[in-house]
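ZP: hey, is the uridine-5'-diphosphate-xylopyranose complex queued? I don't see it on the tracker
AM: it wasn't, my bad. submitting now with these inputs:
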Amino acid sequence: MAKNITVLGTGYVGLVSSVGLADFGNTVTGVDLRTDIVDTLNGGRSTIYEIGLEEYLQRDLESGRLSFTTDGDAAIADADIVFFAVGTPPKADGHADLSQIEAAARQVAANLTGYKVVVTKSTVPVGTNRRVQNIIAEASGKTPGTHFSVVSNPEFLREGKAVQDFFHPDRIVIGYEDDRAREYMEDVYRALYLIQTPFVWCNLETAELIKYASNAFLATKITFINQMANLAEAAGADIHQIAKSMGMDGRISPKFLHPGPGYGGSCFPKDTKAVAATGDEYGVDMSVIKAVIEANDHQKVITAGKLMRLMGGSVSGRTVAVLGLAFKAETDDVRESPAIDIVQELLREGATVRAFDPEAMDNFKTAVVGEGPFGNNLNSDLQEQIAEAAASRLHYCSDEFDALTGADALIIVTEWNAFRNLDMDRAADAMSGRLIFDARNVLDPERAREKGFTYAGVGRV
Ligand code: UDX
């Protein structure tokens, strides 16, 4: 039987989950602290760029099953199930900042008007759901399993494919402790039972670690192919044929074997650091994941350094077109994007940068000068230096050919489809130089060379 659901947090995970759960027939109230976000969402406009999301948002608002509010207390009081989809950003030491999760737990405790299931969908370190259970029990004086139950239900949404991934998940993972909570969750996801989605029922700690293990493995796989590409390039081998042949082994699978400038985004960097920190906490060796973190940071440095080398060692006074600023295609998200490191390096070295991205330029403008979530890692001197350079030598262009105009070199950092089909003739006419560094291997090297370009990819001959 459909449930009354409240989702705390309308960020990337919370908004997609609110819309998806409403579409499954539940009545859903999304909660955010910011009135402007709540008003935008109630007006049927999505606050994040995700293909297909706004259509579902409007359909579910019209159905009367979905609404948004800033009044978390009332929304929790009325709910059978409360989803936590609040942020768990990394602290400087790599541990996840759980302050928003703990505040949400206390808010539930203050509004425990009847039996409720509290579902943590945010990615949280092992043991956090147990901690949520203790906070609610202590703050409310109520007993877990009778007056409330805690469930761990991690998400596996990819940015740019979040709507598709929500409605067609590879699996639903549910950590639970009592049958009543299990029945509630079966009701929530009944629509997925009908399409035979696999369900993994396990304990709280297992569900939490499944999420981290999955992301840390994917980050490891990407880092592996990046290092293999670096070796292939040095040895004169072709990484695409290596990846293709590896993928023919069913145990490896061909997916996630695309070399590039290093992974970014709000998940892999955060989750790999959190797993490493958890290992330290339990005194368990997580040296593989620690090596992945280091190797990925180094891949961004290698990519920027390779561009310098290709341009003869100095870019001072030269113009470089940067196509792609988002951490990957089909998103406007620039968190931990390699483009930030590359553009900062080019500005520091005296280059003029002509940048274009179909969706991510607004977000990039704050992140690259240290105001954005990522840029906060910059020290103040560096922030000032980048801000000054950006003011005079970083140009945001109207399209890829505007970015190419007068450029001595081009680097492709994000694999947008528009760049895969780059018109080489127009590129040659626009550019003053003939160097292409394709850091995502999206172009055909032969076609580029036929047009007189010096082409360099990643691990390609
Ligand atoms: C990831 C996980 O895929 C998803 O299951 C989890 O819920 C959240 O984190 P996301 O970060 O949105 O999703 O993007 P993803 O498509 O996984 O790419 C992550 C990073 O790896 C991007 O920077 C991407 O460019 C890079 N990547 C991915 C590669 O460099 N090569 C690949 O073959 C695949």
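AM: back. The chain is about 45% helix and 15% strand.
ZP: great, adding it to the tracker
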